[in-house]
Structures are given as structure tokens and as C-alpha cells.
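Task 17 of the worksheet. Students: predict the tertiary structure of the chain below and write it out as C-alpha cells. Keep your answer in the requested format; marks are given for formatting as well as content.
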Amino acid sequence: MAVTYPSEFTLPQRKRTDRSSTARWIISHFIHYWYLGLMMSIGAFGNAALAAAVPVLIGDAFNLIAENPEQLQGLLRIAFVIAGTQALRGVLQLGRNFGAELIGQRMERDIRDEIYVSLLGKSMTFHSLQPVGDTMARATNDVREINLMFSPGINLVIGSGNFLLMPVLLAPRYHPSLIITPVLFFIGYLIALWQYLRELQPITAEVRQTFGQINTRLAEAIDGIETVKGMAQEGSEVHRFETNAARFRDAYVKQGDVEARFLPLLLLGVAEAAGFIHSLILYDLGILNIGNVVAYFGLLQLFGFPTFVSLFAYSQVSLGLAGARRILDLINREENLDQNRSGFSGSPHGEVEFKNVAFSYDGENALEGISFNARPGQTVAIVGQTGSGKTTLVKLINRTYDITQGQVLVDGIDVRDWNLEALRRNISIIEQDIFLFSRTIAENISFGLPEATQEQIESAAKAAQAHDFIKEFKEGYQTTIGERGVTLSGGQRQRLALARAFLTDPSILILDDSTSAIDSATEDRIQRAIYSAARGRTTFIITHRLSQIRWADLIIVVRKGRLAAIGNHEELMRTSEAYRRIFSEK
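Model answer:
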């Protein structure tokens, strides 16, 4: 039965999985491809059985020659049987390898799909604390390790397991006592393998963890490359990367050290020697003939395949399990937010009320005792010193973060009782740090409304004072911009973000210092655009610009996470020392 955990959004995925443990999670993925597993198992058994047929038939050939050296017809018959069995063995081996490879590739696809859906469903609290580089390592390389765990990992494990059985099953056909060596080797092999895997498991976990640390540091350095170069810190960044790379290398060296002490290699030599001596003793007693000795020793040599491939295969399985644990840990990070599919999903009028709201972030109180009411259509300016909690306050409205105490109501309904998707579709936030995708300008503007027409896109761009500079590009609205909009100026990025917000026509508009990177000439035009866009909708403006603060219907002064004052400009100038101080600093 599928186990689910709370997530901010429940998005569609191909398969339902059991996430209660790593083993159950992998099995719940594998069970969808049981028929491929059956194909792999049949192929593995047939491959081993037909491999065991070769020493048996060669033993028969030795007996024929010993009885009559001129038994050419009998030898030809045995040769043709060997050729036929090995041709069939090739087909079965192809089926085994094909089944394993297909399972691995399909599971990699499904797990990539699951982790991507899971990441999209996580809240901003999760993404704020989770390093991007480590996430990328889990979503790419760790997922790939699960593929390799099945092919060649588990494929070789199942194949070698069948090779272990054949000498045990076939040795008694020559003499019951000949089963002793294969059984003892089998038991010794399992004990040595258990010890090997127990020692290997924490090391492979360390390998995957140190690889994640490398990716985290690399992602941070690339994302902050402008800062690195601006501060001439290339050398120190290289040193940090080399330190992480050394940890990764040391973990791999530890893994190699454990693999080098793989005990079954010694057991194989002992078993072959002991089995050969045993068969020679029985031959000397007249119990076995020369063909039996040859066949039995050939069967013992079948142990060579599982012994040698286990050195690689079980390491690959251990790496795959370590990767699976890291992926499942990421997917299973529990969230306090949920989509609330059955919640209210109407169109809000825009009334926003805070009732004694408190919010703690990572154990620290960010907001406390916040109460106010913004009526539909009002423009609310939120002012205060840097770090006072202004941005955190507005992000409680659309549940980017969830309150720890009190109530936030939209149209008199607690935001936790809203369908989260419906709530957010009616709230547009323009962040201080504008994010644009590496897509066309038109696609960036229509991101919140993919079905928008070109006419609607251009209308929104004109309202945001972006149309003129867009038309200056050679390809206009079809111009592809760089990742995060690095090919644009700060003011151009903010105007595109405004256009994106205007296009969705939200009931509640939140502008988080959204004109900070705009020159004075453009600011006047955008101010008029914002003033026009604010009509009929509730608008929250976080700003330090007095020109925007003055025309707000309601001004909220936040100081150290608390409500210091509330009112319009004239009232606060008369009654609030904190507001006057902010105003006098301008």
C-alpha cells in the first residue's frame, strides 16, 4: 500500500510508491516491471544451467575417448550438443541482460519523475534550507546509481547466484560425498559476503555524501561566480573544491581497500584445490572415472564467475542502496504545508486580515503580535528597517511560509482553509530578487498564464513600461534571455516581472521593493502603471521610496518583527516617532 507524506502540492506522477523504507520503496518501483524481473530470472537460471552443461558434456567426452579413442561420431554429437546449448544460452543471457537493463532504465525514469514532482511540491521552507548542489547530486547521480544497481548490479548478483547453485545441485550425480566442497564454499561465501557488505555499506554512503558536498560547493561557486571574480577569490574557491574532492577520493580509496580484501577470492582457490584432491582420491579408489573428475572440477570452476563479479556487483548494489536512501530522505522530508484540495477555491475580493500573527523561522521568532485589516482595493505600504520582517509578513498571505500562531484571513477565510493552488493563483508577488527563466521574453511574461495571447502579453508589457525596450531587441518578444535574466539590466528584469504579474490579473498584488533597480525617469512611468494596476485590487508595497509610501491608503510600520505603528501618512507623521524617523532618514 502506498504511503504518502504531506507536501505543499500534490502533483501527478506515474506510479504510487511505498516510502516507508528504502527496500519497500525500491520494491514498489520494481513491482510494476515484475515481468521483466521474471525474464531476467529465467534467463539467469537458464544461462547458469547451460553453462553447467559444458563441463558435464566434456566429462562425457573424456569417458568416450577413454573407452574408445575412435568414437568420432559420439564426440561430434557431444560437440553439436555443446554448440546448441551455448547458442540457446546466448539467447537466454540476452534476455537476462535486456530485462535487467530495461528495468534499470525505466526505474531511473520513474524515480527522476518522482523526485522532480516531489521537489516541485516542497515548500519554500524546505528549499531555503536544502543546498541546491546536494539536491542536484541526489536527483542526477544518485538516481543513476539506482539504474546501475539493477544493471549490471542485481543482474550479476542473480546471475552469479544461479552459478553458485549449479555445483551444489550437480556434484552428487557423480558421488554423494562430492557435495561437501560446494556446500562448504557456498556457506563460507555467504558469511564472507555478509561481512563484506556490512563493512562496505557505511563507506558507500560516505562516497555518495562526499559527492553531494562537491556538487554543493560547485553549484554555490558557479551561482556566485560574479562575486567570486569580483572579490578575486578564485584561488580560495579552487582550494575549497580540492578539499572536498580529496574527501571524495579518500572515501573511494577506502572502498577500494575493502574490495581488495575480498575473502571469497581466497575461498575459491581453497575450494578448487580441496575439491580436486577429493575427486582424485575417489578416482584412485575406483569410485570415479576420469570423465567424472574432469566434469566435477569443471563444475567447481563455475564458482569463479560469482566470486569475481561479486567484487564489482555487490559494490554497485551497495552504492545504489546508498543513493536510494539519500533520494528517499529528500522525498520524505515532511512539510507543514499541504495543498488542501478540498479547501475553498473561489475568487477572492482581496480583503486581508492578520489576527495576532506570529511566525518562527528555524527556531527564531521573526514576527510576533501582528494584527491589521486591509480592505479590498486598498494599497498597503509596509515600511521598516532591513531585517524587520517585512518580506516574511507578506509571504504569510500566500502561505509561502505558514504562521506559527494566530490567523491570516483572505476574504474572512483562514488561508489554511483555502485550496492552496486557488489562493496562489489570485496572488502575484514581485520579489526584490527577480527570477527569469532561460526562455523567450514572451514565455517569461506568460509564465503564470501559459494560454495568454500575444495581444494580452503585449498589453501587460505596455502596462509595465516594458514594451518599448522589448521591441528594441532584434527578435522582440521571441528573444531568448539568459538564465536568471543576466542579459538584461536590473530595471528591465523588474519591468518584465511587473508585466508577468499584470498579466495574471490577481486580486492581491504584492510588490517587494520592486522598483529598487529602476532609474528615476522610468520610475515615474512605472509608478503610474502600478497606481493604475492597483485599482480594484488589494496591493501590498514594501518600499523605501517616499513617493510610493505617500499615496498608500494604509501604512504599516514594522520594527524587530512587531507592529510599531499603523495609519496613513498624515496620521503617522503626527503620532509615530518610528515612522517620522524613517521619513527623516530619506
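Marker's comment: The beta strands are 352-361, 364-374, 379-383, 405-410, 413-414, 427-430, 508-512, 538-542, 554-559, 562-567. The domain at 22-331 is CATH 1.20.1560.10 (ABC transporter transmembrane region fold).
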